[in-house]
Each structure stands twice: as C-alpha cells, then as structure tokens.
Amino acid sequence: MVHIYTGNGKGKTTAAVGLAVRAQATMRVLFVQFLKDGSSSEIEGLKKLPNVDVEIFGNGTFIEGSVNREQEDLVVKGFDLLAQKSSVYDIVIADEVITAASYGIIDPKDVVKLIQSIPSNKEFVLTGQKATKKMIKAADLVTEMKKIKHYYEKGVKARSGIEY
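^ thats the sequence. predicted structure below, dont judge the formating
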C-alpha cells in the first residue's frame, strides 16, 4: 500500500514518524529523509528504535525556491537508495520526497514510477508539499494537511520537540 501525506499544513513528517514508531514493533522500517539535515527530535527518537534504519539526504539549507548543488546531489543519491533498499524493509518512508520533486530536484514522473513499482506486500509512505495528480492517482491512501492557522504568523519561532 502506498500512502501520501501532502499539503501546506504542519504534520506530514510527524504522521510518518508516528507510523514508523507503530510499525517498528512488528516490522523493519526504513526512514529516508530528504532536504532536511536530520537534526530534529523526531529523527533522534527514530534512531533509538531497534527496527528502524534512518538515512538522511539533505543538508538543511533548503529554503523554498532555493536549492544548492550539494542539496541536489544528496537528494538524487537518496532517491537511488530508495530503489536499491526498498525490498529489504516491510515499510519505507520517503520524507519530503514529494517536496524535492515539486522543486524539480527529482522528476515527478520518476516518483510515480517508484510508486507503481512498490510490491503489494510492502508499505510505502511519501511526504511533502505539492503532490501531483498522477502521484495521488497512483497512491492507495492520500491525506492532505491543510493549514488553517499557525502561530508562526504571530512570530512564534520553531521549538525543539514541537516543530523539530
């Protein structure tokens, strides 16, 4: 089954992490994070779980509309890893892979091909903003996180353990 968590609201990565925590009790989990640098509390927690492997393919320099060469190289390397290692795990989570595709670092058509290649006995989760219609059509479950209101707009900065 292929899950997509998309939209402009908070909670896509958190939902994927929650699924990883639940799944690791009985399954092997691969959590691949794109664009971010892996320094969040969520990632630190996942690294401590026995049945979860975490791979980071980002340097944290991603700012909407701005991607540097190092970041692009990391994302491409991570996307290649998904194809290589996916069969070893029961559940694979590709955090922010949709965002990487929406900025053209990865071809969105390649993301759709990856979705279509997932065996029916595997769980695959993709997160990120701006999932394409073709990605949505290829998935089995799609959840859209929609921002209605956010305290960031009042000047509240991101907080450890809450936003990262």
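The longest strand covers residues 29-35.
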